[in-house]
Amino acid sequence: MSVFEEILSIYESRGSSAYFGEAVSMTEHALQAAHFAQREEAPAELVVAALLHDIGHLLEPAPADIGDWKIDARHEQVGSRWLAARLRPEVAEAVRLHVPAKRYLCAADSGYLAQLSAASVVTLGLQGGPMSAAELSAFEREPYHHEALRVRRWDDQGKLLGLKTAALRDYRALVEGVLK
Ligand code: FE
After folding, report:
1. What is the pLDDT of residue 13?
2. What's the CA-to-centroid distance between 52 and ligand 1, angstroms?
3. Whole-angstrom Cα distance, residue 53 to residue 30?
4. Which of 33, 118, 137, 160 has the largest count of CB atoms under 10 Å?
């Protein structure tokens, strides 16, 4: 099976489940994040990172009800390991850092926390809360931290009920262009 066929089958089997506490499914959320990346004419690696940033949730499903989340499922690490074996490092790194990027923005941008969705505030607690000063500077030394911050903003935008987007299968050429 090609990498793109693997991705299609993962989203076809589990992508219709709800995106924790949001109005959209996992697949809709992925497509919306990619839609906002494309609207900013982001490079292919970042559009694909936006599309696949939550693939870790589908590889190792967490409880459907956010109230049942007792531990951080570390979906960004599960996802980035899967992606690093298949796609260019920019994709995997932006995905690995998209949860730290949220913790970074909560500490570095005073308006950011206020616009997070309720579910995203709940998971923030499980993910370690806003970064400390030492964590902020460590994050800024990550080579792909700018890319991760962009993916994070598209992630946060991709929770709109009924937004019209492309379909997952429309991303074949883009994904195949960022294979390792
Ligand atoms: Fe997300």
Report:
1. 93
2. 9
3. 7
4. 33
Provide the token pair at 7. Answer: 């991705």
Residue 115 has pLDDT above 60, yes or no: yes
Select from 157, 72, 161 the least CA-distant residue to 123: 72
C-alpha 173 – ligand 1 centre gap (Å): 22
Give the number of residues written for the chain.
180
Predicted confidence (pLDDT) per residue in 47-103, tens digit: 999 999 999 999 986 666 666 655 556 889 999 999 999 999 999 999 999 999 999
pLDDT of residue 74: 86
The first and second tokens of residue 55, run together, are: 């693939």
> Any idea which residue has 């796609």 for tokens?
87
Q: What spacing in Å lies between the alpha carbon of 29 and ligand 1's midpoint? A: 7
